[in-house]
Design brief:
This protein has 363 residues and is of the alpha+beta class. The chain has a six-stranded mixed β-sheet, sandwiched between helices. The chain has a five-stranded antiparallel β-sheet with strand order 13-12-11-14-20. α4 packs across α5 and α5 packs parallel to α6. The chain is elongated and about 80 Å long. Bound molecules: adenosine-5'-diphosphate and magnesium ion (MG). Magnesium ion binds next to α1. The site of magnesium ion has 3 residues, from α1.
């Protein structure tokens, strides 16, 4: 089958380490994403899987077979780039069947296969149209069909939606996931867009600066981030810095400028460690009158943004450049606050995550 294993993969360009000791196995039939900011090494990993460059150290195995020295045309993979590189002066069907023509498949067979793929991408009977007559989303689907025509075991997608407008991008997430489920092959998807990764993927590898920080499904990564980078890159998060004053059971209590605050300690933080407590905007809520203890703190309202379903409250934090955010569901009687009002907030300590101090993602 077509699992993809990255075994101690390091890729250097001169002295620069673009991918640093990456170890993971992508299961056959999985929709797996690499998520990270621009320049973190995503494309470099994809090129090592597709055969455009072998790793400096370590191995890439597909279906258990070491791929070193095997070129892109002889691997069971197909690659879709951001710029789709369709042939504008060829019909849709000829575009889809291009790889088959190169392989000497006869016309009638090519035509039949193109029609099957047009059904798969929900463009039945549109094979005679010119590519220039299609919308952006339709072209995207044609590029996928063209890549699937040669029956790869693994489809590699390098930010394929980034040229589309927002609405189409969101629509194509659903389409892509549906296509992957219909064909049942392994998809490896790379993106800097967490929404794409979270909605489509079975599992996600979050990367920063060449290092895979965490591999897990969407809810593991969102609810139980392994590092400060993952906590701050995936979804919105409030980071409160402090020092661990007590580690007790599953919890750590941090000394912060807002007093002692408690959160889950899954990373073995010990007394005296520098740490962040991450509390998501939807986890913060106004505290009852007179509440106190290490799941409550007091701060000040800066401003509010009313968004219909949510009221976003910006609160004074320990970092002037980055106020805390509290997201309150609009239940028709949410209280509004004027700037400067003091606000007491509380949170569920099981949904606050204490992590060692580390790199935070830029906004
Ligand atoms: N052929 C190359 N020569 C030198 N540096 C490269 C080369 N390809 C990529 N890099 C560098 O490696 C890093 C990772 O690049 P890339 O994998 O394209 O990032 P991403 O796809 O995550 O945006 C970047 O700093 C990039 O400049
Ligand atoms: Mg890239």
């Amino acid at each position: 089958m077509s699992s993809v294993e990255l075994d101690q993969v390091t890729i250097r360009f001169g002295d620069f380490v673009a991918v640093d000791n990456c170890n993971l196995t992508i299961e056959s039939g999985e929709f797996f994403s690499f998520l990270g900011p621009s320049g973190c090494g995503k494309t470099t990993i994809l090129r090592a899987v597709s055969g455009f460059n072998d790793p400096t150290e370590g191995s890439v195995r597909i279906g258990g077979k070491d791929m070193r020295g095997i070129g892109p045309n002889n691997r069971p993979t197909a690659l879709i780039f951001q710029n789709l590189a369709l042939f504008p002066l060829m019909s849709v069907a000829d575009n889809i069947a291009f790889g088959l023509e190169v392989r000497g498949i006869p016309y009638n067979e090519r035509r039949r296969r193109a029609e099957e793929l047009l059904n798969l991408i929900a463009l039945p009977g549109q094979g005679d149209k010119m590519v220039s007559e299609l919308s952006g989303g339709q072209r995207q689907r044609v590029a996928i069909a063209r890549a699937l025509a040669v029956e790869p075991e693994v489809l590699l997608l390098d930010e394929p939606l980034s040229a589309l407008d927002l609405k189409l991008r969101q629509h194509m997430r659903t389409e892509l996931r549906a296509i992957q489920q219909r064909v049942g092959i392994t998809f490896i998807y790379i993106t800097h867009d967490q929404g794409e990764a979270l909605t489509m993927s079975d599992r996600i590898a979050v990367m920063s600066a060449g290092i895979v920080q965490q591999v897990g499904n969407g809810s593991e990564i969102y609810n139980n981030p392994a590092t400060a980078f993952v906590a701050s890159f995936v979804g919105e998060n409030n980071a409160i810095s402090g020092k661990v004053s007590r580690a007790e059971g599953n919890y750590a209590v941090l000394d912060t400028s807002f007093g002692p605050l408690r959160g889950i300690n899954n990373r073995g933080l010990k007394e005296g460690d520098a740490a962040y407590l991450f509390i998501r905007p939807e986890v913060l809520r106004p505290a009852e009158e007179g509440a106190s203890g290490d799941t409550t703190f007091e701060t000040e309202a800066i401003k509010e943004e009313f968004e219909g379903s949510f009221l976003h409250v910006f609160l004074k934090s320990d970092n002037e450049d980055k106020p805390f955010k509290m997201a309150l569901v609009n239940d028709a009687n949410v209280t509004r606050r004027s700037p400067g009002t003091s606000v007491k907030v509380t949170f569920d300590p099981d949904r606050a995550v204490a992590l060692p101090v580390g790199e935070l993602a830029d906004e």
